[in-house]
Automatic annotation (TrEMBL):
This is DUF4239 domain-containing protein. The keyword Disulfide bond does not apply. It comes from Paraburkholderia panacisoli. Pfam families: Bestrophin-like (PF14023). The keyword Transmembrane applies. InterPro entries: DUF4239. Keywords: Membrane, Transmembrane, Transmembrane helix.
């Protein structure tokens, strides 16, 4: 199920609860809406609203932190790749094949990430993608240095390649963090109860209904943003690939 569909379901549940509250106000006996009764209900709803606000704030903070982490890893990975290319350039013309292969791998990764297709992006976490990076490491190990300087550059290149592989896999796994479904369901239930109480305590008129509509829309948008930021490599809200594209333009020079 897409994030847009989930957000629409949340909106429908919350707004329908508000309309239910408006309807219940018209059919409940008058003594159920006395000051004493509404006072107790407002205290209970206030407690639920506090819990919902805390959970919603924690989810937004966690999603933003996850998004920023992946974005930072992409920038660091780009810096490591350009450093690897410059080390290979210093090694000598013998590394031209390795540098061309590195540029090809980076270009392919950018193309897949830019597509935004979850099925394609999932391949970057697969064994085949890891083997492709390992083949690059194998070519680095096959180099035959002719001096101490080249031996040092080879060792440095192998070390950077290992760091790039580790950072790459860490980024890919961090990008699939998902919001726990039970927590999301519980949050939507709380929001529905809150909006039902809003409808119960308010008179049914166009202004109230419009205000409830905006509130339901806001909560569904908040859920949508949480889900999107938890998947920063695909969807509407994605990390910028500008650093990787800049690196691609510099590789091989």
């Amino acid at each position: 199920m897409s994030h847009v569909e989930i957000a629409l379901i949340v909106f429908a549940c919350v707004f329908a609860s508000a309309l239910l509250g408006l309807y219940m106000r018209t059919i409940l006996p008058e003594h159920h809406l006395s000051d004493e009764s509404t006072g107790v209900l407002k205290l209970a709803v206030g407690l639920i609203a506090t819990m919902a606000a805390i959970v919603l704030g924690l989810l937004i903070s966690s999603a933003k932190s996850s998004f920023d982490t992946v974005n930072g890893e992409v920038v660091r990975n780009a810096a490591s790749i350009i450093l690897l290319d410059r080390v290979l350039a210093k090694y000598g013309p013998e590394t031209k094949e390795v540098r061309d292969l590195l540029k090809q791998r980076v270009g392919m990764s950018i193309q897949i990430l830019a597509s935004g297709e979850p099925a394609q992006i999932a391949k970057l976490r697969g064994v085949e993608a890891i083997r492709q990076v390992e083949s690059l490491q194998d070519k680095l190990e096959e180099l035959s240095p002719r001096s101490d300087a080249q031996r040092q550059l080879q060792a440095r290149a192998i070390q950077i390649a290992e760091e790039v592989l580790a950072a790459r896999q860490l980024t890919m796994f961090q990008a699939v963090v998902s919001t726990p479904a039970p927590l999301l369901i519980c949050l939507v239930l709380w929001l529905s109860i809150i909006f039902c109480s809003f409808g119960l305590f308010a008179p049914a008129n166009a202004t109230v209904i419009f205000g409830l509509l905006l509130g339901a829309l806001s909560t569904s948008v908040a859920i949508f943003l949480i889900l999107e930021m938890n998947t920063p490599l695909d969807g509407v809200i994605r990390v910028s690939l500008a650093p990787m594209r800049e690196v691609l333009a510099m590789l091989g020079q």
